[in-house]
C-alpha cells in the first residue's frame, strides 16, 4: 500500500462522501474491528483510536506499535477537533500555501500535528461528532487506511 498524495479537492470529497447516517458505541466497535482486520492483513504496526466527543470508544495497539503512536494519535486528533477536517487536509492546506502547519498555525506542535491519519466522524444533521485515528505508517498510508475502513463501514451501513 503506497498511496499517492491526494489533492485538497480529493480530501474534501472524501470527507463529504463519508458522512454517516449515525454513529454510536456499537458502530465504533465495528469500525475499529475493520481497521484492526485491515492493519493485521498488512502487518501494519499501528495504533487505532476512535472517539465520540471526549470519550474514547475504541483503542487497539497492534504488534510493532509503541506508546509514541498514542502520542501521535492525540496530536493528530486535536487537529480534527479544532478544524473539523482531517489532519491530512489541514496539513495539505498549509503546504499548498507554501508553508507548514508548524510554521504558520500558531499552535504548539507538541500538542497538535497536522499529519495524515486522523479523520472526522461526521453524522448527517449533526456534523463532526468524533474522530478515527491511525498512527504507525507514513502519513499518506495512515490516512488511506482510515479512509478505506470508513468506506467499508459506510457500505455496511448502506451509505
Describe the protein:
This is UPF0303 protein F0344_23125. InterPro entries: PduO/GlcC-like, PduO/GlcC-like_sf, YBR137W-like. Helix 2 crosses helix 6 (139-157). A four-stranded antiparallel beta sheet has the order 2-1-4-3. The two termini are 25 Å apart. The protein has one domain: Haem-degrading domain (Beta-Lactamase). The radius of gyration is 14 Å and the shape is globular. A hairpin with a 3-residue loop joins strand 3 (118-123) and strand 4. The chain is an alpha+beta fold and 159 residues long. It contains six helices and four strands, in the order H-H-E-E-H-H-H-E-E-H. It has helices at 8-17, 25-41, 67-83, 87-96, 101-104, 139-157, and strands spanning 47-52, 55-61, 118-123, 127-135.
Largest sheet, spatial ordering of strands? 2-1-4-3
Structural class, judged by helices and strands?
A: alpha+beta
* Helix proportion range: 40-55%
> H/E series, N to C?
HHEEHHHEEH
Count, helices:
6
Question: Approximately how much beta-strand content do the residues carry?
Answer: 15-25%
CATH class wording:
Alpha Beta
CATH superfamily: Haem-degrading domain
Count of folded domains? 1
Uncertain residue segments: none
| Average pLDDT | 95
* Structural shape: globular
| Reported CATH architecture | 2-Layer Sandwich
Instruction: Kindly report how far apart the N and C termini lie.
Output: 25 Å
Summarize the main sheet: 4 strands, antiparallel
Instruction: Report the count of strand segments.
Output: 4
Within the CATH hierarchy, at the fold level, what is the topology? Answer: Beta-Lactamase
Query: What's the alpha carbon Rg, rounded to whole Å?
Result: 14 Å
Amino acid at each position: 500500500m503506497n498511496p499517492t498524495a491526494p489533492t485538497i479537492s480529493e480530501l474534501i470529497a472524501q470527507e463529504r462522501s463519508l458522512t454517516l447516517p449515525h454513529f454510536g458505541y456499537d458502530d465504533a466497535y465495528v469500525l475499529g474491528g475493520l481497521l484492526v482486520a485491515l492493519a493485521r492483513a498488512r502487518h501494519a504496526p499501528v495504533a487505532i483510536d476512535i472517539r465520540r466527543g471526549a470519550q474514547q470508544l475504541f483503542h487497539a495497539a497492534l504488534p510493532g506499535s509503541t506508546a509514541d503512536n498514542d502520542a501521535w494519535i492525540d496530536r493528530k486528533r486535536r487537529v480534527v477537533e479544532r478544524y473539523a477536517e482531517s489532519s491530512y487536509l489541514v496539513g495539505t492546506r498549509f503546504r499548498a500555501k507554501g508553508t507548514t502547519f508548524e510554521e504558520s498555525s500558531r499552535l504548539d506542535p507538541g500538542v497538535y500535528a497536522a499529519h495524515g491519519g486522523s479523520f472526522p466522524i461526521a453524522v448527517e444533521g449533526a456534523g463532526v461528532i468524533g474522530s478515527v485515528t491511525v498512527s504507525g505508517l507514513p502519513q499518506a498510508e495512515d490516512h488511506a487506511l482510515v479512509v478505506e475502513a470508513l468506506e467499508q463501514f459506510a457500505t455496511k451501513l448502506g451509505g
